[in-house]
């Protein structure tokens, strides 16, 4: 009886619910669309009182000007190198550490794990000045390793992997592998790795997106000649006169690949966020 | 020391029971030391690039330290004294808190409401969730540039819309409050959907029987939301509020790119939207005063801890009082 009443209520408000969600998502998409709209026309359109609603045909010419204005190919390559390396090492080191914390007993393991969780709350950006001094002393300023090394592994990654491995890898399998003569690393490779593929994939996507979109630290430590995509975008905008068709062609070029990946893998990313939230 | 994976030695052990073979010993060492090797990368990386710099910031803040200076001068707490008398610092502090409040308060409220909508039985549930999360994929730099264009003083779309509806245009960059509002809009645009999903996850984990009991007691949907759902979401709300505090107080990219003078670190002609992190960046890499910037970093760190703590207490209090109404 009560269930029936609940259902009727839902049915009545369904239109409102869908309308709200659609409005929200349209609002979410609009800035992306606007960026492409301006990028596909010329800056003159911005002075029209009411801008046109459909894209024009100038996107490729604007895009090619982006490549002339800043070293955009180099920036893309750099971002791929940085985000790719950081993703690989973060997933590998986080899985190893997560495996140790989840399945092995060793002196101090609880305390060390609590320490890692606490560091999640420490904003590392506040240490950028000494970090800059260190990188300069090492002669790394301006080079990609200055961006890569501080991000080789994250507290979040270790935490995430441990939470997953606790449930996903049964002790019996590990012991069986040990009896068969596997080393600890062997059990990690043959037992743990195959079981954690889903969690590793989610962590990889997060890490890649975060690293690809990182701005403050690359801005500080890299120079205009050897930028990542985000630094190149900022340089594109910081002239005396802002050519918005050019600049927004740049943001579109930098956003579309991420957006496509996001739409393809969106379900997993959402599942990952929801799963992480419940367990966190 | 004892490890779960440490199991009976290998099959070849019985042959030389008297003294452990090299292989046996290697296996014991493997079990004993492997965990430390596996967790070492995190501690090495964090120690060198996270913890050490944070502590070293406090040290640098005691010096008159210019970029490239080989022999910085120790000046004790002078940087902090100067900072407390620095109008630009107080201005940046007020801006930071104002932008932080304008972004995190509506963000959390809308996220909870969105989560409530998403928790209803919908067609294509996964697609709605992906759609809600779309802005999360955008880079802050792209976002900053796009919104700076949308809120542009002369040709910005927002002002064009306002005029179409017969309203006055707003000087989004020049007016202090308006600039805070515009920057908060960017922050909210990117993070609301993300937070909605976190709240949704928590909502779905709530026990069903409590709802059934509430329905039996005659509580309507609204009443159930305020008296059952919200109080039980308390831990998640605390989590969301604290993470958005830590992020919100460090806002840098949005105000940097929102400036009508591109590339500037002033946060507007009158510093009307310069945040603490932007001021920190300006002091260090435009003013080359690393000591002074470190003092700002250290105060910002204290502020984050303070506000996170206050948030924690307030959220706990609020959630507790709504719980009592039940």
From TrEMBL, chain A:
One Pfam family, short name: BPD_transp_1
GO terms of biological process kind: transmembrane transport
Subcellular location: Cell membrane
Bilayer-crossing regions: 15-36, 80-101, 113-134, 140-161, 182-209, 244-265
GO CC list: plasma membrane
InterPro entries to which the protein is assigned, alphabetical: MetI-like, MetI-like_sf
Key words, A-Z: Cell membrane, Membrane, Transmembrane, Transmembrane helix, Transport
Record-linked SUPFAM superfamilies: MetI-like (SSF161098)
Chief place where the protein resides: membrane
Record has Transport as a keyword: yes
Mode of membrane association: Multi-pass membrane protein
Location of the ABC transmembrane type-1 domain: 76-265
CDD domains membership: TM_PBP2
Family classification: Belongs to the binding-protein-dependent transport system permease family.
Name listed for the protein in its UniProt record: Cellobiose transport system permease protein
TrEMBL record, chain B:
Subcellular location(s) per record: Cell membrane
Membrane-spanning parts: 33-56, 97-120, 132-152, 191-211, 232-252, 290-314
Any one GO cellular component localisation term in the record: plasma membrane
Pfam families to which the protein is assigned, alphabetical: BPD_transp_1 (PF00528)
Domain of life: Bacteria
Topology with respect to the bilayer: Multi-pass membrane protein
Keyword Phosphoprotein: no
PROSITE patterns: ABC_TM1 (PS50928)
UniProt-listed GO biological process terms: transmembrane transport
InterPro entries: ABC_transporter_permease (IPR051393), MetI-like (IPR000515), MetI-like_sf (IPR035906)
All residue ranges annotated as the ABC transmembrane type-1 domain in the record: 93-311
Keywords: Cell membrane, Membrane, Transmembrane, Transmembrane helix, Transport
Family to which the UniProt record says this protein belongs: Belongs to the binding-protein-dependent transport system permease family.
Identification of the protein by name: Cellobiose transport system permease protein
């Amino acid at each position: 009886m009560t269930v029936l009443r609940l259902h009727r209520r839902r049915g009545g408000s369904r239109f409102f619910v869908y309308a709200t969600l659609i409005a929200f998502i349209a609002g979410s998409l609009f800035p992306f669309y606007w960026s492409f709209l301006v990028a596909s026309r010329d800056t003159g359109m911005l002075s029209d009182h009411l801008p046109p609603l459909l894209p024009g045909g100038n996107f490729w010419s604007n895009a090619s000007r982006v490549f002339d204005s800043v070293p955009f190919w180099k920036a893309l390559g750099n971002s791929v190198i940085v985000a790719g390396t950081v993703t690989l090492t973060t997933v590998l080191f986080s899985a190893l550490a997560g495996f140790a914390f989840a399945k092995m007993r060793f002196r101090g393991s609880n305390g060390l794990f609590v320490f890692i969780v606490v560091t999640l709350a420490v904003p590392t950006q506040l240490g950028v000045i000494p970090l800059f001094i260190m990188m300069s002393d090492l002669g790394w300023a301006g080079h990609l390793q200055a961006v890569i090394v501080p991000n080789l592994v994250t507290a979040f990654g270790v935490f995430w992997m441990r939470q997953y491995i606790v449930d996903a890898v049964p002790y019996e399998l590990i012991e069986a592998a040990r009896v068969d003569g596997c080393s600890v690393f062997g059990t990690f490779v043959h037992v743990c790795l195959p079981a954690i593929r889903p969690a590793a994939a989610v962590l990889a996507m997060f890490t890649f997106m975060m690293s690809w979109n990182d701005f403050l630290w690359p801005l500080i430590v890299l120079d205009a000649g050897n930028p990542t995509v985000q630094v190149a975008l900022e340089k594109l905008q910081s002239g005396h006169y802002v050519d918005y068709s050019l600049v927004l062609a740049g943001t579109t070029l930098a956003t579309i690949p991420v957006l496509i990946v996001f739409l393809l893998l969106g379900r997993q990313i959402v599942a990952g966020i929801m799963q992480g939230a419940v367990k966190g | 020391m004892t490890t779960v994976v440490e199991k009976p030695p290998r099959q070849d052990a019985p042959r030389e029971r008297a003294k452990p073979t090299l292989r046996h010993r290697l296996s014991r060492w493997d079990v004993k030391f492997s965990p430390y090797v596996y967790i070492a990368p995190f501690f090495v990386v964090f120690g060198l690039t996270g913890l050490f710099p944070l502590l070293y910031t406090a040290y640098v803040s005691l010096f008159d330290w210019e970029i490239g200076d080989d022999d910085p001068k120790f000046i004790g707490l002078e940087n902090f004294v100067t900072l407390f008398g620095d109008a630009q610092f107080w201005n940046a502090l007020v801006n930071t808190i104002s932008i932080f409040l304008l972004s995190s308060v509506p963000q959390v409220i809308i996220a909870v409401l969105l989560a409530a909508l998403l928790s209803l039985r919908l067609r294509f549930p996964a697609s709605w969730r992906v759609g809600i999360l779309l802005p999360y994929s955008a880079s802050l730099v792209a976002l900053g540039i796009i919104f700076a264009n949308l809120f542009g003083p002369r040709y910005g779309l927002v002002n064009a819309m306002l005029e179409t509806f017969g309203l006055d245009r707003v000087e989004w960059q020049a007016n202090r409050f308006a600039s805070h509002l515009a920057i908060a809009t960017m922050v909210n645009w990117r993070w609301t959907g993300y937070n909605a999903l976190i709240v949704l996850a928590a909502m779905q984990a709530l026990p069903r029987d409590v709802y059934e009991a509430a329905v039996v007691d005659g509580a309507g949907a609204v009443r159930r939301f305020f008296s059952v759902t919200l109080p039980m979401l308390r831990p998640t709300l605390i989590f969301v509020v604290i993470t958005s505090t830590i992020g919100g107080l460090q806002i840098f990219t949005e105000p940097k790119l929102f400036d009508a003078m591109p590339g500037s670190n002033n946060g507007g002609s009158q510093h009307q939207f310069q945040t603490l992190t932007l001021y920190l960046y300006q002091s260090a890499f435009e003013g080359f005063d690393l000591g002074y910037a470190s003092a700002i970093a250290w105060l910002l760190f204290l502020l984050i801890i303070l506000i996170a703590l206050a948030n924690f207490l307030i959220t706990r209090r609020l959630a507790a009082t709504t719980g009592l109404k039940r």
